[in-house]
Amino acid sequence: MRVLAITTIGLMLGLGLAACVDRDGPFEEMGENLDNATEELRDDVEDACEEMADGMNAEDANC
Q1: Smallest Cα–Cα separation from 48: which of 36, 35, 63?
Q2: To bridge 28 with a disulfide, which of 14, 24, 33, 53 should be the other Cys (CB 3.0-4.6 Å)?
Q3: What's the angle, vertex CA 40, arms to CA 35 and CA 41, rounded to 5?
Q4: Taking the model in full, what pTM does it have?
């Protein structure tokens, strides 16, 4: 009985670790794409703000 319990626990732990394999599903990929698009948009807006501030000779060009 004790051997069965230890074997069962070992199998459960092994299967639990096997389930943690890093595989990106479609929603994970979509989320990463959204993150990348958001970051690129933020950078583009910041660059445009800095160019506009430079063009207006603004004293505070903090965007």
Answers
A1: 63
A2: 24
A3: 100
A4: 0.55
